[in-house]
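Technical annex, item 7. During the second reporting period the consortium partners agreed on a shared format for inverse folding records so that results from different sites could be compared directly. Each record opens with the tokenized structure and is followed by the designed sequence. A conforming record, contributed by the partner at site C, is shown below for reference.
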């Protein structure tokens, strides 16, 4: 119950950045658990989305 299921995280990530998920990591940071999701966009760009694993809030989106 501490973190959201991966399926729910992927749904949130794909609403923010369209494309194919190519990598997912779950890491414990100082502020808690974070999912890092890499998405290959239709234009060929790889974007990294960092989400709070507990509530699904997007922390940041950056080009990788």
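Designed sequence (site C submission):
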């Amino acid at each position: 119950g501490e973190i959201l299921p991966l399926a729910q995280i992927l749904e949130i990530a794909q609403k923010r950045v369209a494309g194919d998920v190519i990598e997912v990591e779950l890491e414990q940071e100082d502020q808690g658990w974070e999912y890092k999701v890499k998405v290959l966009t239709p234009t060929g760009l790889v974007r990294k989305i960092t989400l709070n694993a507990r509530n699904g809030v997007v922390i940041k989106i950056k080009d990788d």
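The helical segments are 6-16. The mean pLDDT is 96. All partners now use this format for quarterly exchanges.
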